[in-house]
User: Fold these one by one.
Assistant:
Number 1:
Amino acid sequence: MKERIENVLRFNKPSRWVAGAAVALAAVFSVGFAINGSGCLFPIPMAAVQIEPHFRGNIAEVCEEPRELLEYYQNENIEYYIDNAIIGANFGKYGGGGAFQTASHVTLKTIVNAGKITVYLMALYEEYTGMDGIRSVAGSHMPVAITFSKPDYCVLEYWMPRDGIYNIPSIKRKFPQDLWDKVDTQLYIGQQQKNNMQKARAHFDANPSTADTTLFQAYFAVIQKLYEMDTGLNNAIKYVAVDITGIQESERVSFQKLFDLWSVSLDCKPLSMTSEELMQAGLLSATGFHEGLLFTFENASFDGETLTVGATKYRGPLGAASADFTVRFNNGAWTVHESDMVYMAN
């Protein structure tokens, strides 16, 4: 396992086209998740996910073909963007582990002003599992205000009220007065739960949970397990990177979507890059990945119900965790077991 960690920093001199691509990537990362007229990050980066008074973060999932997706989504109803924003802002916060995430909302008022659209609504976010029957395992229900830009529907602000005794005062400061008597969650929860359950049933009917159809979740479960190991390595990070070359090719797209949402729920920028690419982008050096974590996989083997794989969480030569994992599929869910041999470099 020590060799596995040392291998992170071993690489051959890159070819000219690889170096050029890395320079381009570095330019992208230097400006963050910017929006321009030729494409976007989807479900739209949030310049300000705001829990009153001032909590900020980024919510983004990278489009593989932004121009085509932008054209498609611009023809969609704003309801689509609202549900995507709700899911993006809540994903990974509640630890429910549901395989399906969905949202339902009731629009209370929409205000269009100077190229912006602000929607005041009641938002229900839920995570569902198909294990032992379809059921909700985590979620939230609250009034929120989402401000989109026009015409691209990028999220400029996702506002959520404060908790406890500050809840109602914060809502009254944000919401128009004619909505104050409409923000009782009990007025809407029943129908919204029915809407979400309908979506969940349709999802699990169309995508029955089997080991073959959910293998990407096994890899993701390993990432989550590694993240919980040697938690001191997780301090003060801006990036969470994963080298997907060690993942079965058919699982990479689905895995990447989960990984990206999880990363931004940590207020980190998700990167899909090898150690060589990180080095060429100037993010990784011989002394380590000072602003992030790099997850790598190797020697993966899947026999139909069990995934065995070696994985490493790397911060630097003196900051890493590595183990061999066995991930078993049982009753519609994956369970991670780490080996007794766990290598910690610190």
Note: The CA atoms of residues 156 and 338 lie 41 Å apart.
Number 2:
Amino acid sequence: MENFSLYHFLERMFIVQKISVRKIVSDRQKLYDAVTNGDCKRRKLVGSRYEDLEEILLEWLQECRQANIPISGPILQGKAQQIAREINIDNFSASNGWLQKFKRRHGVSYRAISGESANVSDESTEEWLLDVLPRLINLYAPRDIFNADECALFFKLMPDKSLVLRGEKCHGGKLSKERLTVLLAANSDGSEKLTPLVLGKSAKPRCFKNVKRLPCDYKNQKRAWMTGALFQQWLHQVDLKMQKKDCKLLMIIDNCPAHPKNVKLSNVEVVFLPANTTSKLQPLDQGIIRVVKQYYWKRLVLQHINEIDRPESKCPVTILNAMHFLSSVWNAVTVETIAHCFQKGGIQKEMKELENDNNVFEIRDDDDWKSIQETVGANFHFEDYVSIDDDVLVTEFRELDGIIADHKEDDDDDGNQSDEDDSEVPLDPIPTRNDVLDAVTLFRRYLAAAPTDTEQVDRCLHKLENFVVSSSLASSRQSQIIEFF
């Protein structure tokens, strides 16, 4: 986007001045944020004099709506005055004019809130399965029916420490710095898995330095929790993706406090499961998340075994490494596993029986696990290790005082708090072209001795090698003078 020729093309294509093109490019993040937050009908992006105040107020409003707490205009004005006092804003008046502008800026409208019982009877579940769900899924093909859900992940938890954590709360301190919240979403026939969204505490993890592309999407939140604002932003991103593909989808989610209702979307229809039914109806809770965690912990265990055998290869588990692990294991989840879980949740209409159905979610204490048990003295089963973070909160209702406190801490930290101990996590140097080509050669020697068919992997390795060589040639090309303008 910074290339001179592209600027020139945009000027001629849209008949605008060069300064206008440069202004749009420089404000591209603001424009993108406005669209992903649903604020795309206004012709101009007019900011507020009280951005911090309105950000806190909007976050509190979303928390209340998720908890089905009715909020009126006068209540909003009163809370705005309270926030102004708390963050030391003088001469602020929560007038009716300010309220109307606040509502327009953030797309706020008042709607009646229907009550919801804390407990759902078996009759309600049966009504969903027999009446509501069939009418919905008949309108969509299986590939266009999605489910999304969050889970907690203690991303660098080693087996020798896991027993200590069982049953502990995770609201702050060192334990909270070792956890992430992960949002996963897939369609009912298993043909498409959306890129995982990872939530951490740090806005700029040190391990992200010099990294231009992440294997997963990443957002930060003070407690690494999902919030209504973050989930709404994610929904808008999915909606934009579906607009580009010119297709519509059904997104089935649970009644989590962080899942806002009445989000304006054009290509995504959001449907909520009956309250307190996720253990029976939510496909990702029927085994998909469980399988992802099995694969993840297996990768972590294997790395630990390798470090035991070769101490010089020891590498700290950073958020970036965890995201690479997560992306890899998410891609490894099979179509059959996903389709089976949607069938268990009653969403897949027809599906043939899976072979070895009883073994789809089976956890075995295999030789690798037995090896690490002996090494670290862990006298518990792999299943206990996998399920260690099953009950950890991924969201919670926050009062206004808590939201204000979070924002004050963000200002103090200036977004640089690290989820890792910087003194223990050295930055990895960027590999040179020769380093990468040496690694390709080493991997090719490994494949040559493999007992199984590696034709597909060989093709990927050729593509990797060609990419490295072509990238190196492109970077060595002499720059032209117009590229500096």
Note: Strands lie at 145-154, 179-187, 197-200, 217-220, 249-253, 268-272.
Number 3:
Amino acid sequence: MTGAPDWAGGLYDGKVRLPVGHLSRITPEFQALLAHELTHALIRAKAGTSCPRWLHEGLAQHYQGGDLGEAVASVVDASGETSLADPARFYALSLARVEFLIDRHGTTRIMQLLEALKTHGDYAAALDDALGLEPARFDHDFVAWLKRQKR
């Protein structure tokens, strides 16, 4: 796929782009990739261009069947501190943040957050409008939740 990083299985750039040239059957891996890229398209329709990258990728991973246990293990080191030493950790942290949102607020409120992002065009305002949280409080609550998941 032109324009996609080497590690990417698909791409959403306003269009869902998937490598289908040699596809002879629909595999579970292809279904997961399709779910991931279609989620990006749905987020764009709901939130416009104001959705933070972590929320985009976390939701896409969630709906492709991402594994929270693997995500938590890769973003929390032995001391319990979160880290983003490589791109894989960004994706893991994104999934963990989305799973936290789902656990605390449910998917309906996440949809409200996406709508608020489109309305406000600003993450902090949307977070306050949809969830009644300031970004610093969200981050604090998330880190505490993430540490409990590691146990």
Note: The radius of gyration is 16 Å.
